[in-house]
Amino acid sequence: MLTKIDHIGIADKNIEESLPYYRDQLHMQYMGTEEVLEQKVKVAFLQIGESSIELLEPTSENSPVAKFMLKNGPGIHHIAYAVEDIDRALQSLVEQGVRLIDTQPRKGAHGARIAFIHPKSSGGVLTELCQPGS
Ligand code: CMX
Prior knowledge:
Elements: E1 2-11, H1 15-25, E2 29-36, E3 41-48, E4 51-58, H2 64-72, E5 75-83, H3 86-95, E6 106-107, E7 113-117, E8 127-131
Parallel strand pairs: 1-4, 5-8
Antiparallel strand pairs: 1-5, 2-3, 3-4, 6-7, 7-8
This protein binds carboxymethyldethia coenzyme *A (CMX).
Carboxymethyldethia coenzyme *A binds next to strand 3, strand 4, helix 2, strand 5 and strand 7.
């Protein structure tokens, strides 16, 4: 069902200030920044091999990522696995009694279709399934 680790999401207060660390000191390949309106976040991608680091900066106080940082501070927020067919993957998880946050995919960065599994069903690790955009 899963094809690779697509990305690791990191909650970040200010992408512009964090970029030099990832891009210039760790020499990750910076792939650009975009805003995901539906999720109220600005997202920067840094490529490492077949996976990437996704820096998440809230664009509003009521962004889920802002709420996360109020509770936990900046740091690792979620892990995202790539899937070829997110509808089938979600259906399979539902059939196995896995608790989902999103029973229907929604729009993520790069035109991907994404859905989150509830941390209660994934050992406290917020887990995203991600069907890359074509
Ligand atoms: N890690 C672990 N647990 C988390 C968590 C995280 N990052 N974020 C929330 N939770 C926990 C909460 O503490 C809460 O637990 P309790 O029920 O024990 O209190 C539970 O999950 C539900 O959280 P909530 O905020 O009450 O529920 P919502 O349905 O409002 O939102 C969630 C849940 C996880 C979808 C939302 O908080 C979130 O983080 N959305 C994703 C934002 C994001 O990363 N967007 C970028 C996507 C871009 C892309 O990848 O393409």
